[in-house]
Amino acid sequence: HMIEQIPPSYTWGYNFISSPLTARISGYVIKIIPRYRGTTVTRHCNGMSEMQVMQDIPFDGLEIDISEQVYCCFRTSRPCAVAQFSKGQSVDDALKEISENIGDPAMVWLAPVGQFVNYVIFYTGFTSGASPDGFTFGEFANVIVPADSFNPQMIRLDGNLLQPNEREWTEIFCPPNNITACAYGRCVTLSGSEGKHNITHDNPSGRLTAIVYGWADQKGYMYPAGFALDPIGEIIFSLFVETTRIGERSGPFVVTIIRAGDINVNATVDLQIQSASGLISGVSFATVGVANAPGVDIEERTVTVMFAAGETMKLESIEIFADNEEEGDEYFNVNLVQQPGFLLGSPSSEFLIIEDDTIQISLDPLTYLVEELTIDTYETLRGTTSAPIREITEIRIRDLEGTATGGVDYMSFNETITLFPGNTTFE
C-alpha cells in the first residue's frame, strides 16, 4: 500500500502542504526524503511564530513529529518527496484517557504544489455501512487550493459548491512569507456518500489537491485523490530550430536551447556542432574545422550553455562560412551532450542542411502611374541577386500581359541580360 504510492523521483517537488486529520487529536508524522544531499527544509505550521530551518537533512529521510492537528508547509531547496503518517488509536486513546477504538497508522503521499491539478476523481466504499470484515468507516477528504487559484465560488464536490463561504476555509501560511496566506484548506465529511466522487475547479487553469482517508476500529487508510506527474524534479534540456535548411549566405543560424522541469537551480549543458559524417549516409557533409580556414563551412566546437536559476531559454548562434565553390546540399549536426544531473528531452539533436549554391534573382518593384494618351513614358527595370554571381550568367526578361495589351498599350519586350561574376544588381 505504501510502496504503490511512490511516484518517479523526477516528479518530486519543492513545496508541500500537510493538513489536519479529522477525528484524530494526536497530530501526525511527516517524513521528507531528499533527492540530493545537502537539502535544506524550511517548515512553518499554522500557529507557529517563526519558521524552522533544517539544513543538510539526512539522505535517508527526515522525520518530523507534528504534535497537533494543524496545517503545515514545507519548502525545500532541492526536489524532495513528502509523506504524512497518521498515528494509531492507542496514541489518541492515551491522550483522551478513554478508548474510542478508532484509527490505525496509515500513510499518504503529499503532492508537491507544482503537481496540483484541475480536478480529482476518487471512490469511497464503506461510509454508510460495514465493510466485509464488519467495520464501519468514517471517511473524509481534505482539499487544498493555492491562493492564486482560490475562489470558493468555483470549487465543487460532485457538482455542488464545496463551501461557498470563504470564511469557512482555513488560511494556510507558508515560508518564506508566513504573513499572507499561500493556500486555503477545507475538510469534507464523506460519510453516507459511498461510491464515485469528484472535486473540480470551474476555472480550467485553477489548481487543487485532495487526500482521502477513513478510520474504523484499529483500521485506517489514506491516499492522494490525484496529482500530476510532470517532471518538475528533474532538469530536462531540449533544442529547437526554426528550419533545418540554411542558406549559405543567410548569416548566423540560431539554435534555441530550452530548459524544462526543475528550473530552480543553476544548470549547464553542452551544445555540440559537428559533421554529420558517420551519423547519416548517402549525402554530402559540411566541412567542419577551424573558423575561416579554407574550405570550412562551419566551425566545429562545443559550447557550454549556462542557465541561471529561473532561466528557461538560451539562444546560440552558429556561423556559416560562405564560399564560391559549386556544391550541393551539405549536412551537419547540432546536439546536446548527455551528462549526469539532467535528462535530454525531444528533440535533443537535429541534422541541418546548408543550401550552398542557390542564388535568387528578383526584380525590384515598379511604383509608377502613367496617364494614357499623354506622352510616351519609359521605365527602367532593375533587379538584384541574393548573392554575388559566380560565373557568366544569362537571364531572360519578358513581359507578361495583364489587363494591358502588349504592342497596343505598351511596347512588348523580351530581353536577355548578361550577368558577370561579382554582379549583385542589374538593369
Short description:
This protein has 427 residues and is mainly beta. The chain is built from one helix and 32 strands. It has one helix spanning 89-96, and strands spanning 13-18, 28-34, 41-45, 52-54, 62-66, 72-86, 106-109, 119-124, 138-146, 155-157, 160-161, 170-173, 181-189, 195-201, 209-216, 219-224, 235-240, 245-247, 253-261, 267-275, 288-289, 298-299, 301-307, 313-318, 330-336, 343-344, 349-355, 361-363, 383-385, 393-398, 414-419, 425-426.
Total count of helical runs of at least 4 residues: 1
Radius of gyration: 34 Å
Low-confidence stretches: 280-285, 289-294
Helix and strand composition category: mainly beta
- The rough form would be described as elongated
Care to count the β-strands? 32
Strand content: 35-45%
| Average pLDDT metric | 82
- Helical proportion, percent range: under 10%
Main β sheet profile: 7 strands, antiparallel
Distance between the termini: 82 Å
